[in-house]
Write a structure and sequence with these properties.
Blueprint lengths: L12 H11 L33 H14 L14 H10 L5 E6 L2 E6 L2 E5 L32 E3 L10 H6 L7 E5 L3 H5 L5 E5 L4 E4 L2 E6 L19 E6 L2 E5 L9 H9 L4 E5 L16 H10 L5 E4 L14 H11 L7 E2 L6 E3 L3
Parallel strand pairs: 3-4, 4-5, 5-6, 10-11, 11-12, 12-13
Antiparallel strand pairs: 1-2, 1-14, 2-3, 7-8, 8-9, 9-10
Helix pairs in contact: 7-8
Length: 357
């Protein structure tokens, strides 16, 4: 498996850091609700609801500076963390007649249900940044673009670079046939790149295709890809429901004491919940947009999930925690909360497992 290294460009460092600070700047005042719309809509875009406070600018500057500084070193990746692309392809093919799930890295998963391939939050590039430097991956995708089977459905949770890879979206073949499901205001991103079947959903809206029902659901996060577009597009998680199983894809979220309980009450038990277990180390800077492993398990319990899969870890340099700490905390917490070891999935990058009820 190819491991990635950081691009180093010494000139213009100050400009880059200042630009990144601008990307993450907090609004001067809390966003105002747009009357006549759901409570998460604002006059300028969207907000988390229930409303959560923004982090202080001083904390965000410290966060950006530390991320920039640490991005020039990559962790050593143990061979036990990934499969070679050849082995990953062989394993995927061996389950060709089964419903299955493959972890490609970060929140990118290839899910097969009754012969339909669903790709979540595609991120295949080396950098998660609009700049020539920025957060970079230290483990390559488990399956490359060329190794993917024909994709039928893409689902997107939000527009951050490690969840929505413009180069990949541009290069993916079969655009005229692929159905894309996105939160509000992200349709244009895909239609500008040649996709014809793009379904834009608000929270709790549902669409069905290929006998699979997809519902956009709330999470606690934010959106941004540029200098002045913070929260202009919506963010969401997804319920994926078919006659053969019910699955939950969180994408990326902080914990909420109400949101996931409400989803669990509405949908009943999920067969598998894909929950984020990394990128919690930035709380020391007042930045809280992700769950700890323990919170991920709590979400799984509130979703009434029978099994949990830990995602959003072991792929890209985004946070201060030891990159190999999340899965151990995840497994320990899940055991304490009553999950059996067979129902707590910590997968290798490139690994495929059978989906079953």
């Amino acid at each position: 498996m190819k491991l990635f290294t950081r691009l180093f460009i010494p000139s213009g460092v100050l400009l880059i850091v200042l630009s990144m600070i601008l990307f993450s700047r907090a609004p001067a005042s809390p966003p105002e609700w747009k009357k006549g719309k759901p409570k998460h809509h604002t006059r300028e875009g969207f907000r988390n609801y229930p409303v959560i406070p923004e982090s202080k600018m001083s904390s965000r500057i410290r966060f950006i500076f530390n991320r920039f500084k640490s991005s020039f070193t990559m962790p050593t990746v143990p061979k036990s963390h990934y499969l070679s692309e050849r082995d990953a392809a062989v394993l995927l093919h061996s389950f060709k007649n089964k419903n299955s799930i493959t972890w490609i890295g970060q929140s990118t998963l290839l899910i097969k249900i009754d012969g339909t391939y669903i790709l979540t939050d595609p991120f295949f590039s080396q950098l998660a940044s609009p700049l020539p430097v920025g957060p970079g991956r230290y483990a390559a995708p488990g399956i490359s673009l060329k190794g993917l089977p024909p994709v039928d459905i893409i689902i997107i949770s939000h527009n951050h670079y490690d969840h929505l890879d413009a180069d990949f979206i541009e290069a993916l073949p079969g655009k005229e046939k692929i159905n894309v499901f996105v939160p509000l205001k992200l349709k244009k991103f895909f239609t500008d790149r040649g996709y014809r079947h793009v379904h834009e959903l608000d929270w709790y809206e549902t669409r069905s295709i290929h006998n699979i029902k997809l519902t956009a659901l709330p999470i606690v996060h934010y959106s941004s890809r540029s200098f002045n577009d913070k929260n202009k597009t919506l963010w969401c998680s997804w319920a994926i429901v078919s006659p053969h199983g019910k699955y939950y894809f969180i994408g990326d979220s902080a914990y909420s004491p109400t949101i996931f309980k409400n989803i669990g009450k509405k949908f009943g038990a999920f067969d598998l919940a894909m929950v984020t277990i990394g990128t919690y180390g930035n709380r020391r800077y007042g930045v809280n947009n992700h769950t700890t492993p323990e919170e991920a398990v709590a979400i799984g319990r509130e979703l009434r999930a029978k099994a949990l899969l830990g995602i959003h870890w072991g792929t890209i340099e985004l946070s201060d925690e030891n990159p190999w700490e999340p899965p151990e905390r995840f497994k320990k917490s899940a055991e304490k909360k009553g999950f059996s070891s067979e129902d707590v999935w910590v997968m290798k990058i490139g690994e495929t497992r059978i989906l079953s009820k």
